[in-house]
Amino acid sequence: MATHSSSSSFSTLLTYLQALAQTPRRLASRAPSVSSSYEELNRVKARSGSDMQRTLRWFDLVGLGIGGMVGAGVFVTTGRASRLYAGPAIVVSYAIAGLCALLSAFCYTEFAVHIPVAGGAFSYLRITFGEFAAFLTGANLITEYVMSNAAVSRGLTSYMGAAMGISTTKWRFILPLLPNGFNEIDLVAPAIVLILTLIICYSTRESSVVNMILTTLHILFIAFVILMGLWKGDWNNFTHPGNPQHPSGFFPYGASGVFNGAAMVYLSYIGYDAVSTMAEEVRDPVKDIPIGVSGSVIIVTILYCLMAASMSMLLPYDMIDVEAPFSAAFSGRSEWVARVIGVGASFGILTSLLVAMLGQARYMCVIGRSNVVPAWFARVHPKTSTPVNASAFLGIFTAAIALFTDLNILLNLVSIGTLFVFYMVSNAVIYRRYVMVGTTKPWPTLSFLCLFSLTSTIFTLVWHFTPPGKPKPFLLGACVVIAISILQVFHCMVPQARKPAFWGVPFMPWLPSISIFLNVFLLGSLDGPSYVRFGFFSALAVLVYVLYSVHASFDAEIEGSLGQKNVEIVEESKQSGEEEDPSQKV
Questions:
Q1: pLDDT at position 585 over 70
Q2: GO cellular component terms (predicted)?
Q3: Which of the four CATH numbers 3.90.550.10, 3.20.20.140, 1.20.1740.10, 3.40.190.10 does domain 56-240+248-440+507-523 have?
């Protein structure tokens, strides 16, 4: 066995067919296998060759978090959520959504401080639920990063055209040989993606500086929009609709409208998770990561609430344009203000695109370190200290898609995969606190997580599909009581197996459980096609894992680059302060 090379399963067609015949045994061995924190921080990290430079501080992370979150989404979702669901109470919806995002951010922060590596959620799930769960979520996340980045880059050309008063037909042309939806060639979108790719390949520090400049300009535009709205707006619009026959008051659609609005606008907060992938390049992870992640979410929540208030003052909620609320609100008053909003939105799209491309490259780099994709992706360049291979490959792939694929064909910005990862990380932080492999039994914690998720799912189904009437409040109340009872029983009967050494989510397990509930609720608000796409890409990821990844991982284990002897594990666990065996199965 020692003579096997890392490519032994793929050296010839015969050896590959023999490897496929052993797939069930290899799946049983590798799929549930978990790594240890010590492995992720040492042997796994060393597979990249050179180290990433620790040059980022807390203010860099705050800037990256704001840049990743405040994209074009807020300019669209605000109008739709206000007009259709919340009315002027859209301000409260943004505050609720911000609280949800902060709870998920806490879960990310605990892991990022504990294992400051570039893998983000992939690494967190790999040390908790095993290789297969990490690969499935990581593959979905990268796919949606690439698709949404391609969509965002094409959307950027539309905003730029609107800001300059130039139709996008000036730089797009039709190739009649290609099918509809793939025949409109956009040369500007891939050019923007490739320029950003060069920046992130050159230096993370310079990427942060570029992001900081663009984010500062974007915040200035947002401040301008807020001040203009407060100056030109009317306080009566908070309570009086344009049409007297429509519901009036600050809460025209009641509490349900506020929460449905929160579910819609929550998608404007997606992007802070990319900050966790920068943990390996942070100078002082214990101090900088909590401030950077939580601080960016809090600042963005304040900005969003002020923007929503400004919009609500400009127009009654029933007169707001659902497609372009801010531009339309000003268009009848100040055309130049509408033009300025287009410029500001362009800066926001650029920053969100830059941060997302930084994040996707680091996810791919760490997945490459784990040997479930070719190790070529894991390489960190010795001069630039950046994952050049992963950055260049994903950048070129994104540019190719943005070149010819229509915006309506691409995945929309609603990211079911990202919400699913948030849900998984919230579960993982509870599991890791209460389960120590070899010391405590996992079944009480797994039973709690399953029962709590099931109760949350039932609540979500009742909320969305049960018609209004007396039974609905009773069913919802019963679900809440059951969920709280399950949580309280678990809290009282199952002790924590470990305490975080540096930073941990407070009020365990209450806050992560609330995050689980909210993410399930938000997942339930997405449309059917989103689940079809998620199912398709998940099935594709499973196919890749079965046909390639599990065999490459198994070969690496045989060779000794994955999985170590028990004596070594015990020694490493002592050094990291954890008595856990990375060869154990979850």
A1: no
A2: plasma membrane
A3: 1.20.1740.10
Domain limits of the chain? 56-240+248-440+507-523
Report percent pLDDT > 90 for the chain.
32
- Amino acid code (one letter) for 250: F
3-state secondary structure of 55: coil
pLDDT 10s digits, 153-212: 877 777 777 667 676 667 777 777 777 666 778 888 899 999 999 988 988 888 888 888
CB-CB contact of 175 with 183 (8 Å): yes
Token pair for residue 66? 């704001």
Query: How far is 582 from 519, CA to CA, in rounded Å?
Result: 29
**What dihedral do alpha carbons 413, 415, 419, 421 form, nearest 10°?**
-130
Backbone phi and psi for residue 115, each to the nearest 5 degrees, phi listed first: -130, 85
For the ranges 291-300, 482-491, 569-578, which has the lowest average pLDDT? 569-578
- The residue with greater pLDDT, 167 or 514, is 514
Cβ contact 26:551 at 8 Å = yes
Query: Tokens 């992130």 belong to which residue?
Result: 200
pLDDT of residue 167: 67
Question: What are the CA-CA distances from residue 356 to residues 243, 337, 349, 475 (Å)?
Answer: 41, 29, 10, 40
Q: Are strands 184-186 and 172-174 parallel, antiparallel or unpaired?
A: antiparallel
Q: Which 3 state secondary structure label does DSSP give 33? A: strand
Q: What is the mean pLDDT of the chain?
A: 83
> What average pLDDT does the segment 446-452 reach?
96
Confidence of residue 485 (pLDDT cuts 50, 70, 90): very high
Structure tokens at 552: 């490459």
**CA separation (Å) from 434 to 109, 334, 397, 500?**
18, 58, 41, 11
Compute CA distances 313 → 59, 82, 87, 223, 236, whole Å. Answer: 32, 12, 11, 15, 8
Contacts 24+ apart (CB under 8 A), 159-167: 159/72, 159/342, 159/345, 159/346, 159/349, 160/188, 160/342, 160/346, 162/327, 162/339, 162/342, 163/339, 163/342, 163/343, 163/345, 163/346, 165/339
Helix 335-369 to helix 188-202 angle, to the nearest 10 degrees? 50
